[in-house]
Amino acid sequence: MRTLFIAGNWKLNPAGADAAADLAEKVKAGVGQETRVHVAVCPPSVFLHRVDTVLDGSPVTLGAQNMHWEAKGAYTGELAGAMLLDTGCTHVILGHSERRHGMGETDAMVNRKVKAALEVGLIPIVCIGETLEEREAGKTLDVLATQLEGSLADLPAEKVAGLVLAYEPVWAIGTGKVATPEQAQEAHAFIRKTLADRFGEATARRVVVQYGGSVKPDNARELLACPDIDGALVGGASLAAEDFLGIIRAGLEVTAAGKS
Ligand code: PGA
Known about the structure:
Layout (H helix, E strand, L loop, with lengths): L4 E5 L7 H15 L6 E5 L5 H7 L6 E4 L16 H6 L4 E4 L2 H4 L6 H14 L2 E6 L3 H5 L3 H12 L5 H4 L3 E4 L13 H19 L1 H6 L1 E5 L4 H8 L6 E4 L6 H16 L4
Parallel strand pairs: 1-2, 1-8, 2-3, 3-4, 4-5, 5-6, 6-7, 7-8
Helix pairs in contact: 1-12, 5-7, 7-9, 11-12
């Protein structure tokens, strides 16, 4: 049984540390001591320490949005995994499409980051997903297979079992165009099968695969109810505590309804 995992990717928001602390306070208050759904927030790195302080005593965990693969050295502007761990992070988003497409991140770079994160004990949330052009050309599953293969290259099954993946169709991110539950489930089932072929059934069953792309309180329930969707990576809707908590409530309902 995989516990649903709902993570808020705050991206380049909010504008200041007080607003970040306020949002984290509201998420903390709404979640209380509930652990039947795992919740995380991923603020900009400069707010990690402040948000970690706010989350003290809460089951809500903390993630970063990116890191470098090197541990130290002459890499101006970069952050190392150990630094993120030191601010209280347990997770780090890697290979988000806004980094792949906006900043030229390749599968090989994502793979180095995944290895470096695991090395220091951070859990990577590895993002994969096709563009609209690729979907319309019928290449969705090929793209997912290539990104999986490249991002997870050289990793042993026991490491892969502890990873989180996020299927985020690029055309659904920030557009309000959510994938249908059928489209999302098809991609998730394919990801699970690809993992099973490559790393074995037992590993594939353990990997948490989130869906991301315009998840809102009103579409979360039917997405989270799909058998191979194990949570959500939420962008825009994670910036309003009520919306984010609405998605968490949908996850709790799905869990209470006996999803396995
Ligand atoms: P969105 O972003 O929910 O705003 O579509 C999701 C993501 O990029 O992780």
